[in-house]
Amino acid sequence: MPVGQAAANLEQLSYAAVSGMLRGVRDRLQGSAPASPTSQALPYSPVDFDQSFASLGYAANQGDNNPLMPLKAPAARIVAGPTGPTWAVWSEGFGDWERRTPLNAADIGRTQTSSGVHTGIDGTWQGVLNRGDYLLVGVLGDWMRTNVSFAGTSQGFQLEGPGVGLYSMYLLGNFSADMTAKADFLSLAENFAGFAPDATSNVTNAGVSANIQYKNLIGHTGFAEPTMGFSFTRTMFGDNAAALGLTDGSTLRLQSGLRFGNTFDFNGVSVEPTLALLVYSNVVAEGTSLPTTPIPIPLSPTDRGLVRGEVDPELNVDFNNGYSAYFRSVVRFGSELFGATAKVGLRKTF
């Protein structure tokens, strides 16, 4: 029974929800012309210096001709502290469908249908390490549910429960990096349609995801943004896991790709369509079975090393009054896998 794989997929949907929301925030902060990553010195006002020179008996407009004062005093740097925070709240609802066909003789075909809601609150500070940078830190909670049906049968199982997490993003000029740490507390309910006793168990997901990006401008409002990142999930089962043929497992995914976008203004509303093209692979995908059971039950039929693709079209809408919305879809494909996600989100900045 591929419970571990289904749980890891649910956690992956959470990572995608947060990183997708942060993409829209990043585009608004960086704008069409991201700030220079170098700090800018703020000199004192020339008027202030001229007034000081005048108090010594020199006219402000004669300083350059005075042989005793060939140069004005050097400009002084003003190091400003962080400003903020600017607070925001957001929420997203999603639906996901995925079909897997058997990878090997020990695997079983199945369909996984998932849904959920994510909600978060975050603050953004400017000038934390550099005058032109931004730091965003937030917390989130969610409720997710997934149903897995085995091909050709009425059997399957359900995972459902809440999750909590922390997320952050750092921007410096065209560069950005984000990270999400999260835990899910799920309940497993089996449904063997009378062919075997149904059972329940607790399932805990814990993991972290991180990405880095660099935005390259195209014209005045377009961009191309290479990205790369990873996600790690550890799935842990309750005390009765051994009796159900389940053991803990880990999944480590690496991904990279390129995102394109452009911004248009319509009656004071900013509209940004984007398209991301990604490739990913689970470099760690633990799959185990218990040989003591009458039939070995795979926890996570391993898809380790298989390279798969993802296409992510998005539409971000900024109403320029503190409200913004996004509409996103995801199509995943590869060896023995096809899936699609639809999501809609709303963010309010105060």
Structural class: mainly beta
Principal-axis shape: elongated
The CATH topology turns out to be Lipocalin
Task: Report the C-alpha radius of gyration, rounded.
Answer: 27 Å
Number of self-contained structural domains: 1
Catalogue the unreliable spans: 33-79, 289-300
Distance between the termini: 47 Å
By DSSP, the count of extended strands is 14
> How large is the share of residues in beta strands?
over 45%
Q: By CATH's scheme, which homologous superfamily applies?
A: Autotransporter beta-domain
Strand order of the largest sheet: 1-2-3-4-5-6-8-9-11-12-13-14
CATH 2nd-level architecture = Beta Barrel
Contiguous helical run count: 2
Mean pLDDT: 84
CATH classification, class level: Mainly Beta
Overview of the molecule:
- This protein has one domain: Lipocalin (Beta Barrel), CATH 2.40.128.
- The chain is 11% helix and 55% strand.
- The chain contains 2 helices and 14 strands.
- A hairpin with a 4-residue loop joins strand 12 and strand 13 (323-334).
- The longest helix is centred in the first third of the chain and has 28 residues, at 3-30.
- The two termini are 47 Å apart.
Provide tags for this entry.
single chain, 350 residues, mainly beta, Lipocalin, 12-stranded antiparallel barrel, 2 helices, elongated
Gist?
The protein is about 10% helix and about 55% strand. With about 350 residues, the chain is mainly β. It has a single domain, classed as Lipocalin (Beta Barrel).
